[in-house]
Design brief:
The complex is a heterodimer of chains A (about 260) and B (about 350). By secondary structure, chain A is α/β, with parallel strands linked by helices. Helix content of chain A is about 35%, strand content about 30%. Chain B has about 350 residues and is an all-alpha fold. Chain B has one domain: ABC transporter involved in vitamin B12 uptake, BtuC (Orthogonal Bundle), CATH 1.10.3470.10. Chain B is built from 13 helices and no strands. Classes of the chains: A alpha/beta (about 260), B mainly alpha (about 350). The structure holds adenosine-5'-triphosphate and magnesium ion (MG).
């Protein structure tokens, strides 16, 4: 019961971004963090898994071949939240979540507005429901986008930098929401994060991507090490376990 | 359930889910009521349009004449049935077609400035018409004005196909389509000017009238063709409405929700080109209706396309109908080309919208 990514090649035009990339199988109910420098190919990988980037290779969920599905079919299983936020949309937050739910016929069932409200409640955005999306702050829009992603109750939830615009408290809340979503709905959750400490804290599995290749992957303590930090980010850093088994990343110098 | 407390997201105490759902439904009811009001305004505008004209007939007389044809003298009946009514209906249908076309273009190209006029569809049509007039193209068994309209249609439709092809070739995404469109406006306008330069005096007169946009070629045939094209395209627009709404959230988000964006964009542009090409083929270049209609609709009902598309259709129809009535009354004793009127009304309306939305931020 897991997501399998095998031999994935993705390109933009004739520029190959990911070539023959494979990941350890990502079990349901667990959170995986995808980390790496800017331009490493993290977004491209998520988009390829979601079927949005032109890619070849195997993407399987349990015994379903996601890579052979049409866009509408795939959307029943996978949701991708882009890292950029929509602008200038004359819709209320609730309407945008309904729009995401009703975009393709397959997902309709029950009262869309009620389901959309449930998603908004889950991400803690009830008070935003009737506000116009284009009048929200950046962080509020990111929370709204999260509701758009989970409203279809995907089995594979791909969040591209879901905390980039959030304040400290909301970062923590969104990360624990992601974890709870994985546990409670038995979903595969993949997060792109730049905060390594947050990645270590929230995830069961960490994938370090650089230049379109997987450098290391494994449990946080194995993937996030001084060696990886030096290799991939060119910084000299210490990684220390502190109380409650959480790790601390302390950067001493830029190499 | 995980996040009971939501600091900083709101100042007031949170309303309950039920209260929010209730408010959401009330908003929808209010917007549907606005649609109905727009439709009524359209009917009123049509009545006004039919009642205005150089030969004095009271609106009341015309209304009774429509209900009971026997109450009009033969010449009055001819004016109402052969001129006033087809003109008025052509005007609303053209407005509806242009605005629906503009609304779909604005959504799929993600550009609030997209419209048949700004993307060069109108310019292409006017070049096609000019060519037909100047070259005196003829096909046996077809009246010459039908040839002109047909040629205008061919060029308008061709211009959109060209736009799509160029955008695909360049893979530049939707913004490049708008740039190509602007290039097309200039190219076709230059070509039309060239044709005008070599045209005979008589052809030139016809040409000028055409490039200004006018209802003077309206007839029951144009009403029938426009109504048929609208009836053909609108149901497909309606079916695509949910996907179009999702597309407002961005391409990736829509695709991730199950929308085949490339396919949606292709068919949407196809509908838009069919609608606008047909409209300009009958009345020539009518600017701003296709641009401003959707903007008015957006202000009134937002961008849920199940409301936004019908509201665009009605706003366009209303604008065009009012413009048609105004074209008969603005200069006493003269019938202005309707394209001039839409520009005169449209430019300030458009500037107003820009400033209003700019102030909103
Ligand atoms: N639309 C595009 N067209 C062409 N090349 C692209 C496109 N999007 C991304 N790329 C290229 O693909 C590579 C990977 O980009 P990607 O967006 O996957 O990086 P990322 O790891 O998500 O970076 P970031 O942390 O900055 O979001 C980059 O070199 C980028 O230049
Ligand atoms: Mg990225």
């Amino acid at each position: 019961m897991s997501l399998l990514v095998n031999g994935l090649t993705a390109r933009y035009g004739d520029q190959v971004i990911l070539s023959d990339l494979s990941l350890a199988s990502l079990p349901r109910g667990e959170v995986t963090s995808l980390v790496g420098p800017n331009g490493a190919g993290k977004s491209t990988l998520l988009r390829a898994i979601a079927g949005l980037a032109s890619a070849s290779g195997q993407v399987r969920l349990d015994d379903l071949s996601l890579d052979r599905m049409s866009i509408a079919e795939r959307a029943r299983h996978v949701a991708y939240m882009p890292q950029t936020l929509p602008a200038n949309v004359a819709l209320t937050v609730l309407e945008t979540v309904i729009a995401a739910l009703e975009a393709s016929p397959s997902a309709v069932g029950g009262d869309a507005a009620v389901r959309a409200m449930a998603a908004l409640e889950r991400v803690g955005a009830t008070p935003l429901a009737l506000k116009r999306l284009d009048r929200l702050s950046g962080g509020q829009r990111q929370i709204a986008a999260l509701a758009q992603a989970i409203v279809r109750e995907p089995r594979v939830l791909l969040l591209d930098e879901p905390t980039s615009a959030l304040d400290l408290r909301h970062q923590l809340e969104v990360l624990s929401l992601a974890k709870a979503y994985a546990r409670e709905t038995d979903a595969v959750v993949v997060l792109v994060l730049h905060d390594l400490q947050a990645a270590a804290r929230v995830s069961d599995h960490v994938v370090v991507l650089a230049n379109g290749r997987v450098r290391v992957e494994g449990p946080p303590s194995e993937a996030i090490t001084p060696t990886t930090l030096a290799d991939v980010w060119q910084v000299r850093a210490r990684v220390e376990a502190c109380a409650q088994g959480q790790i601390q990343v302390m950067v001493d110098a830029v190499l | 359930m995980l996040m009971r407390r939501v600091p900083n997201m709101t100042m007031t105490t949170a309303p309950t889910i039920d209260a929010i759902l209730h408010e959401h439904r009330r908003l929808r009811v209010r917007r549907h009521a606005l649609l109905v009001a727009l439709a009524i305004a359209c009917l009123a505008a049509i009545a006004l349009d039919v009642a205005t004209g150089p030969s004095a007939m009271s609106p009341w007389k015309i209304v009774t004449g429509l209900i009971n044809p026997g109450s009009l003298s033969p010449s009055e009946a001819a004016i109402v049935w052969q001129i006033r009514l087809p003109y008025a209906l052509t005007a609303v249908l053209v407005g509806a077609c242009l605005a629906l076309s503009g609304a779909e273009m604005q959504t799929v190209l993600d550009n609030p400035l997209a419209s048949p006029f700004t993307l060069g569809v109108s310019s292409a049509a006017s070049f096609g018409a000019s060519l037909a007039i100047v070259l005196g193209l003829g096909v046996p068994f077809l009246p010459s004005d039908a040839i002109v309209a047909l040629n205008a249609f061919v060029f308008a439709f061709g211009s959109v196909l060209l736009l799509q092809a160029m955008a695909r070739a360049r893979r530049g995404g939707v913004q490049s389509i708008v740039l190509f469109g602007i290039a097309m406006v200039f190219a076709f306008n230059a070509l039309t000017a060239l044709v005008q330069f070599v045209a005979s005096q008589e052809a030139l007169q016809q040409l000028v009238f055409w490039t200004m946009g006018s209802l003077s070629r309206a007839s029951w045939r144009s009403v029938a063709v426009l109504a048929a094209v609208l009836a053909l395209a609108a149901p497909f627009s309606w079916v695509a409405a949910r996907a179009l709404t999702a597309l407002r959230l961005g391409e990736d988000r829509a695709a991730s929700a199950g929308v085949d964006v490339a396919r949606l964009r292709f068919f949407s542009m196809l509908r838009a080109s069919l609608l606008s090409a047909t409209a300009v083929a009958f009345v020539g270049v009518v600017g701003f209706v296709g641009l401003v209609g959707p903007h008015i609709a957006r202000l009134l009902v937002g961008e849920d396309h199940r409301l936004f598309l019908p509201a665009s259709v009605l706003s366009g129809a209303l604008l065009m109908s009012l413009a048609s009535a105004a074209s008969k009354t603005m200069v006493p004793g003269a019938l202005l080309p309707v394209g001039v009127v839409t520009a005169v009304i449209g430019v300030p309306a458009f500037l107003f919208l820009i400033f209003k939305s700019g102030a909103r931020g």
